[in-house]
Write a structure and sequence with these properties.
With 205 residues, this protein is α+β, with helices and mostly antiparallel strands. The longest helix is centred in the last third of the chain and has 14 residues, at 172-185. It has a five-stranded mixed β-barrel with strand order 1-2-3-5-4. The protein folds into three domains: 4-67, Nucleic acid-binding proteins (OB fold (Dihydrolipoamide Acetyltransferase, E2P), Beta Barrel), CATH 2.40.50; 70-138, DNA polymerase, domain 1 (Orthogonal Bundle); 143-204, no CATH class. 42% of the residues lie in helices and 17% in strands.
């Protein structure tokens, strides 16, 4: 099972790239939102992607789907759990940012979800019904040009900091401020889940 690839960009097409890893070229499907982040990459540049590996009896040829962040891959796995949304349909559907999609799901914003490629009214309602209440973490996803460092998971606050920085793309200073503001607003927070919820509420205000 392939979960992560790091190598040199050999080729870019509309919906896929060819990535050279240890002298082996891997064809990786990428959603529009991921391809947009690769637009500044030139042939030969280093690229790293979290990989969703897809292979079934009906789809015997292995398919690799790439994401910039581990949290985006996790969101994708939630997304394809919705009835009538398979991995290949989901790849085409992700034409706006994962953070915006997650926010729309939490708000029950069917209009925004219908902007996703191949998603109609009925499926948009299914997405909300299946995933609402589970998307606060993903609604916080940001892309920043910043180095990422691991933090020690000593308690739930450190766990949230780690996720904000290493998975959701926040700068360390911004993540620290978000956590501090959330804890100030609600001193009764005792779990990572409650802290994520409070951070999300603060972002919506």
């Amino acid at each position: 099972m392939i979960g992560y690839l790091e190598g040199r960009l050999m080729k870019k097409d509309k919906d896929r790239i060819l990535l050279l890893v240890n002298q082996v070229g891997y064809e990786v499907l990428v959603p529009v939102v991921v391809m947009e982040t690769l637009s500044k990459k030139a042939i030969g540049d280093e690229v790293s992607l979290y990989i969703y590996f897809y292979q079934t009896e009906r789809q015997p040829k292995p398919v690799l789907i790439g994401f910039n962040l581990e949290a985006e891959k996790e969101f994708f796995q939630y997304f394809i759990s919705v009835e009538a949304i398979g991995p290949l349909k989901a790849v085409k559907a992700l034409n706006i940012s994962v953070g915006d999609i997650a926010h729309a799901i939490e708000c029950g914003d069917v209009k925004t979800l219908k902007q996703l490629s191949g998603i109609g009214d009925r499926t948009a309602h299914k997405i909300v019904a299946s995933l609402q209440g589970k998307m606060n973490k993903f609604a916080l996803i940001r892309h920043e040009e910043d180095g990422v460092r691991a933090l020690v998971d000593e308690d739930f606050i450190q766990m949230v900091m780690d996720v904000l920085v290493s998975q959701l793309g926040y700068k360390t200073t911004d993540a620290r401020q978000l956590v501090a503001d959330a804890m100030k607003r609600n001193k009764a927070i005792t779990t990572a889940e409650l802290l994520f919820d409070e951070i999300y509420r603060g972002q919506r205000q």
